[in-house]
Design brief:
With 426 residues, the protein is of the alpha/beta class. Helices cover 49% and strands 11% of the residues. The chain has helices at residues 4-31, 36-45, 74-88, 106-116, 148-168, 189-206, 232-242, 261-271, 296-311, 333-352, 356-364, 368-379, 384-393, 400-406, 409-417, and strands at 50-51, 59-60, 63-64, 93-97, 119-124, 172-176, 180-181, 212-216, 226-227, 246-251, 274-279, 321-324. The strands form three sheets. The protein has an eight-stranded parallel beta sheet with strand order 1-4-5-6-8-10-11-12. It has a two-stranded antiparallel ribbon with strand order 2-3. Strands 7-9 form a two-stranded antiparallel ribbon. Helix 3 (74-88) crosses helix 10 and helix 9 crosses helix 10 (333-352). The chain binds manganese (II) ion (MN). Manganese (II) ion (MN) binds next to loops. Residues 105-287 form the Xylose isomerase-like TIM barrel domain. Keywords: Isomerase, Manganese, Metal-binding.
């Protein structure tokens, strides 16, 4: 399905137009003393992990409209990510969710990953729903539960995830804790935090020294009065309590409307505690839409902080793990993921074009208008030829979504897997 040769052939009719646009942009940027190839190379190097749980059609609590051809097994999920990576060469790793993706045959899986040129970047635990075989319920919390037996079960589940991660070479263990309360008075605020910190410490101790624990925060949902880890400050304090291998994970959808996410990113970089990203698009809350679909300027400003941090010798933050965390309710999930990665690369490219020396000078001189104009100048540059050139140079499709459609991928997946195949996930 969509081999490299096929992708190469699909590029041919697009090359002439691409060369014209790329050469125009190269000349334009040369006038601003920007060399294009180093920017293209950084785009080629940039990789975003694809979540196993976003390859099937997502839904809301009101329902779901499956598209057909969804991956029915972990092997088929890996095959789908391999296909995405053949198209854009920017998605060479996959995030797994336990228990949805428990590996049955580890050596066979490792072989498939190797042949596909993929790695597992992160294992994600799940204590936000009860599994059939588990003795205790998470209805009133997991790592923060008032019951020691429930906490122990949740800790054990996380340690199992760490073990799977070790087997599959994943060096990240991600914890998103759905614990919280729905009513005032339901939960003792400080004791719930303390129990969570102690539970996380038990998991942290079970991790190998080269593994990082990412702690994700979320202000509301599934609980609507309080969440035990509602904000970056709580995540950050837990990381400090645990040790240097604990880092904060920023999920773009996990903020209240109008939160200045780029400022949070800058703060965490300053503290050396920014561990990872879950990219998605959000209008109101945890909407899980296509990254960059509704707030492209915000995405650019976030990348502006990341690039600024990466270029500042004073910033000692370790490498950041970039991951998508989304749910595709309307679009074909694979097309949505291709769009998300493209929007992420575009925002990154624009951030790389910011004239940092001029920006710093404007900031130091309190030249508000000049500083803003410098950012707008980069943001308003049409960088699509740079992203397409990165795809081309790394062997991908000049236009991944068009190639996906021309290759009739969805129709083939439906033929292979059936119209009613269902994937585990959100
Ligand atoms: Mn997330």
């Amino acid at each position: 399905m969509l081999t490299n040769d096929h992708i190469h052939d699909l590029n041919q009719p697009l090359l002439d137009d691409h060369h014209f646009r790329f050469s125009y942009l190269t000349d334009l940027l040369a006038r601003r003393s920007v060399e294009v190839q180093p920017v293209v190379q950084q785009l080629i190097n940039f990789q975003v992990a694809i979540p196993s749980w976003a390859l099937g059609t997502g839904g809301t609590r009101f329902g779901r409209y499956p598209l057909g051809g969804e991956p029915r097994s972990l092997e088929e999920k890996i095959a789908d990510v391999a296909l995405l990576n053949r198209l854009n060469r920017s998605s060479n790793s996959i995030s797994l969710h336990i228990p949805w993706d428990i590996p049955r045959d580890v050596p066979a899986l490792q072989q498939q990953l190797k042949e596909s040129g993929l790695t597992i970047d992160s294992m994600n635990s799940n204590t936000f729903q009860d599994q059939k075989e588990q003795p205790y319920s998470y209805k009133f919390g997991s790592l923060s539960s008032t019951e020691a037996s429930v906490r122990q079960q949740a800790i054990q589940h996380n340690i199992e995830c760490v073990e799977y991660g070790k087997q599959l070479g994943a060096n990240i263990h991600t914890v998103w804790l759905a614990d919280g309360s729905n009513f005032p008075g339901q939960q003792h605020v400080r004791r719930a935090y303390q129990r969570t910190a102690e539970s996380l410490a038990s998991i942290y101790e079970a991790m190998p020294s080269d593994m990082t624990m990412l702690i994700e925060y979320k202000p509301y949902e599934p609980h609507f009065y309080s969440m035990v880890i509602p904000d970056w400050g709580t995540s950050y304090s837990l990381c400090q309590y645990l040790g240097k291998n604990a880092q904060v994970l920023v999920d773009l959808g996990h903020h209240l409307p109008n939160t200045n996410i780029e400022q949070i990113v800058g703060r965490l970089l300053h503290f050396g505690r920014l561990g990872g990203f879950h990219f998605n698009g959000s209008m109101y809350g945890d909407d899980d839409l296509t990254t960059g679909s509704s707030k492209p300027f915000q995405l650019f400003l976030i990348f502006n902080e990341l690039v600024d941090g990466a270029q500042d010798q004073a910033v000692t933050n370790a490498a950041v793990a970039y991951m998508i965390d989304a749910s595709h309710n309307t679009k074909d999930p694979l097309e949505d993921l291709l769009q998300s990665v493209e929007n992420i690369l575009g925002a990154y490219a624009k951030a790389l074009l910011v004239d940092r020396a001029a920006l710093q000078e404007a900031q130091e001189n309190n030249d508000v208008v000049r500083a803003e104009e410098i950012l707008r100048d980069a943001f308003l540059t049409d960088v699509r030829p740079l992203v397409a050139e990165a795809y081309r140079q790394s062997g991908g499709a000049l236009n991944p979504v068009a190639a996906y459609r021309a290759g009739q991928v969805r129709q083939q997946l439906i033929q292979q897997r059936g119209k009613l195949s269902l994937s585990t996930g959100l």
